[in-house]
Amino acid sequence: MKIGIPRALLWSIYLPLWKAFFNELGHEVVLSPPTNKKILNDGVTACVDDACLPVKIMHGHVIDLMDRADLIFIPRLISICPREYICPKFIGLPEMIRNSVAGGPKLLVLDFNAHKSIRHGYDGFIAIGRQLGARESAVRRALARAMKAQDEYTARLLGGSNPLMLLEGMALHAGIGGNKGTIGLIGHPYLLYDRFVSMDACRKLAQMGYRLIFPENILPEQIERTCSIYPKKLFWSYGKHLLGSGLAMLEKGMADGIIVLSSFGCGIDSFMVELLQRQNQRDFRIPLTVITLDEHSGNAGFDTRLEAFVDMLEWRDHNGHYFSPHGEGLYIC
Amino acid sequence: MVITFPHMGRVYISVKALFDDLNVKLVVPPPVSKNTLELGTRLAPEMACLPLKINIGNYIESIKRGADTIILTGSCGPCRFGYYGVVQKEILKDLGYDVNIVILDAPNTGFKAFIDKIRMISGYSSLSSLMRAFRAAFKVTVEVDELMDIVLRKRPREKHKGETDRLLSRFEHDVLKVHGSTETLELVAIYKDKISVIAEDEKADPVRIGLVGEIYTLIEPYVNLNVEKKLGSLGVEVHRGITLTDWIKTHLSMDMKYKRARRNALDKAKPYLGRCIGGHAWETIAATVGFNEKGMDGVIQILPFGCMPEIVAESIIPTISRDLSLPAMTVTVDELTGEAGYMTRLEAFVDLLSQKKGMVS
């Protein structure tokens, strides 16, 4: 059977697992093309207005796959880590797609719920393997191999690589345009690793001569540790991931500047970015900018902001860190 | 210690009764106003949801009146409400306000911590007086909700327009002057009687609309631009999909009969949404189906802009509307919602419903 995997949301993190799992079970995997104008427009038209950009784009990818795949794989990632969630929209994703995409796409829904324990989460894979007609022993075998592929992938991400290099073969090594420093690029995987949505920010920054570090490069233990300053457990896995990796970059001085990409209307970012900015303002004072993306974002405006940020980083070095930020005099406290 | 809390509709009546009974000093924040909203909008993250912004406004207005401890309930996701306390604390800290925020998480996330917090904010009252005060406060909540049900029934039927609202606003004025649950209950009883006897127009046959959506937006009149009153004055009998009593029964009580009934109600959502996705999206879907069974003429969903769970519900409601041929409308509110545009949409919806009703009967 042909199983379509939309190149949207967390595909860039879990593709090795999903693809190996279906291949091991003897199914063909069809990927939707990288996000393009048509996919975006289809998604925006189908989806409710209030949803965020990544969810709209997901709708577009599903529409694209509708006549090319027998089943479209929709992961309902309720929780990927015990006692944590991702985002309410991820939990309601299959319902959103069923009700918004005309023509009744045939969905293969994976319920992944590790809220109780990680082991519980993988029961979802067993269930869809059975649904596809395989015996349980075969499904377990496939799952074990798929998890091995995923572990290798995760290890390479932690080793300093990123999905753009591993999945799309993009050359992002430092020094395309000289070696001026390091920028921490923080954002959800579906923004950072989608070249259409992120307006190719990664390539642009690399060309300007900066090495990039991503949240996927930061060790989970570091993230746990930096997030423990908050009195209450952060119950969004990706929220914690972004905030924790940002704090780790600040604390360890890994980056000369931090750019946060956020999608308009992202409920989790609204809180995480706020906490990160406040912490930075209090203790670290490293240049940090937030760029909000939505379906109306234009390339020119985006480039201007990137360039302005990079200019500011460079001038700051040049002027010996004496820089008057907006609204604050140098000699007036 | 002077306690304050964020506004949420008429929750202040119960909270005031509770702390009066416990003899703990309390500042009731001034009613949510334009000033509250402006304070909140300026200080809170731009993309945060509206309730957080209004909360911040409430806190600052209360701190100016002498409050030093803020109490707030919590949850553990996935809705953003669970992290309100932490973000708000950071904001107040950077503003230089030295206040203590006590987040009351559900007891199952740490029973001892929960009890300790309750003992602290209650001024270390004895357990028996605590239980008594909580029970009395719950009674107040139930009674006030009943009063509101009477109001909602009366508004479209009253003979002299505005009579119900005149009494209601006098009640809201008086209730701040009484002390403790006993006096509050007496006052509620008086107004229940007064409002019940308002003369009705016998010919009135109001359109019936069910309100569903995010709980805070439904309960706080300033945020929903007083939708109950607006609809009432358009001659609509409003039914609420969720009330404060429901919320307390769900989260704080052991009422097994209610829990079973709630389970049954939620099962109605099954064809569309079979699980909790945070916030009140599940309840929204279940209530929409439930309202159809109760023979409502239409349903209005209200959500604050960017509310994650309600967005999922928003995309499901059109399907329910088609399947059950139940007219439904979604209204998103935020700090920029204009009254005129909002009113036009309500009027248009009510017009459609009453024309439809006229044709059917």
Radius of gyration of chain B: 20 Å
Secondary structure category of chain A = alpha/beta
The total of helices of chain A stands at 14
- CATH architecture tag of the largest domain in chain A: 3-Layer(aba) Sandwich
Order of the strands making up the biggest sheet of chain B: 5-4-6-7
Fill in the CATH topology of the largest domain in chain A: Rossmann fold
Largest sheet of chain A: 4 strands, parallel
Gap between N and C termini of chain B: 60 Å
Characterization of this structure:
The complex is a heterodimer of chains A (333) and B (361). By secondary structure, chain A is of the alpha/beta class. Helix content of chain A is 49%, strand content 14%. In chain A, the strands form two sheets. A four-stranded parallel beta sheet of chain A has the order 2-1-3-4, with helices on both faces. In chain A, α6 (118-131) packs across α7 and α12 (237-251) packs parallel to α13. Chain A starts with a strand and ends in a 15-residue tail after the last helix. Chain B is built from 15 helices and seven strands. In chain B, strands 5-4-6-7 form a four-stranded parallel beta sheet, sandwiched between helices. Chain B has two domains: 1-154 and 157-201, no CATH class; 206-361, Rossmann fold (3-Layer(aba) Sandwich). Chains A and B meet through α4, α5 and α13 of A and α4 and α14 of B.
